[in-house]
Amino acid sequence: MNESNLHEYQKHAVRHIIEHPYCGLLMEMGLGKSVSTLTAIRQLMDDYLEVSKVLVIAPKRVAETTWSDEIEKWEHLGGIRISKILGTAKQRASALKADADIYLINRENVVWLVAKLQGYWPFDMLVIDELSSFKSAKSARFKALRLVRPKISRVVGLTGTPAPNGLIDLWSQIYLLDLGERLGKTITGYRIKYFHPGRSNGQVVFDYKLNSGSEEAIYKQIGDICISMKAEDYLQLPDRIDRTVEIHFPEKVMEKYLEFEKQQVLAMEDTDGDISAVNAAALSNKLLQYANGAIYDSERNVHEIHAEKLEALEEIVEAANGQPVLVFFSFRHDVSRIMTTLKKYHPKEIAGPEDVASWNAGKISVLLAHPAGAGHGLNLQAGGHIIVWFGLPWSSELYLQANARLYRQGQGKPVIVHHLIAKGTMDEDVVRALTDKVNKQDALMQAVKARIEKYRRI
Question: Which of 94, 293, 305, 429 has its Cα between 20 and 30 A from that of 211?
Fold first, then answer.
């Protein structure tokens, strides 16, 4: 394929990057953010002579495969030299010294890179692939990038979900684009102007709520540099079939689950109705583990409890009759149990680019992936069209991004998404949160508080 094959909306994205020294492409998965950005980079290098070295920060697996795959796929991008700053410290240092046009680094090594360069900054353009991974102003990666941002003449931020947990997440992302020009120089100022405190405990504020009119005001402020596109407006996506597979525990298993739930809730030393987010997350994890069929003890030993979900998963894989199945898991003990149960299908956990290639070549019948590891950038649609969620995440961002590995442009078959939901367990709360697209923290806290009230009445 060559440049003439780009869709009109992709050409619009290319022009937007070229015309704006710093900008955001808030384009949903599958719309071709990478090829649009690469096309703009090539033009800025060859036609405008404005750019010589580009740094791309991306999730690890995206840095390993996606960008280089795009360059190979498109004829007009031929000749772009890339260097992947990945691997050991020695390998990263060597890649940093290589003569290239584009340097790829995973976001976990941003702090290392800034420290390594010691004030020197050779890149005149920065691309942040998955800008939302810089949503925390307190993170080390944000603080490191903030130090060198004034040295960079061109910045592009790419993401499909810039504010999965609310617009409070936007400040740090937009700051890396415009150095605070639109939403203010500090996160505190941004909060004061557009938000008011939500849940709090004394001086500790757990979350912030939008003031009336703030949403429109924020969008207006960033509208000149950010373009937003939804996949449904531009793509002919495949059909999608969502299927809930209800797991009904045998009576004794259900009794044990409820007793476990009760013990875990009552063990939380709580007298005033308040509960910390940390404790809520810990309780949720234990209950979701139990629903999946195994739990960790305090020493991280695994205790298997039931095989109800494993049996349902095996039935789905068997019914697929040789068609590849992508399974998303939640916990490490899920992997070993699934591997054992499905051993005759030779399941494989995704570990690197070679697994992506094997899956897309039809050489893997069951591929296991964690949504946080495979949620961004990986193109897996050539390998299959069946997804099974062995355990669901609270995050709608992870859920949507993970499904988009198969449910995207280029998928030739209807995508079937199976959700294994244990009736009467925390699984149902997660499903409601994802269906209603509510804030994951609010949903988690409400689910835990409901259980506290339930057992206080007993």
Answer: 429
What is the distance between the alpha carbons of residues 293 and 176, in angstroms, rounded to a whole number? Answer: 43
Helices (H), 103-250: 110-117, 140-148, 170-178, 187-194, 214-222, 231-234
The model's pTM:
0.66
3-234 and 240-456, same CATH topology: yes
Bridge-based pairing of strands 82-85 and 22-27 is unpaired
Tokens 């691997």, located at residue: 87
- CA 447 to centroid of chain Cα atoms: 23
Per the prediction, the chain carries an average pLDDT of 90
Please say whether the beta carbons of 161 and 401 come within 8 A: yes
Unique residue bearing structure tokens 């404005």? 50
Cβ–Cβ contacts within 10 Å for residue 450, how many? 10
In CATH, the number for domain 3-234 is 3.40.50.10810
pLDDT tens digits for range 92-146: 999 999 999 999 999 999 999 999 999 999 999 999 998 988 999 999 999 999 9
- Residue 384 makes CB contacts below 8 A (sequence gap 6+) with 323, 324, 325, 326, 359, 367, 406
Give residue 400's identity as a one-letter amino acid code: L
Contact indicator for 39, 14 with CB cutoff of 8 Å: yes
The class level of CATH for 240-456 reads alpha beta
One-letter amino acid at 13 equals A
For residues 53 and 158, what is the distance between their CA atoms, to the nearest angstrom?
Answer: 18
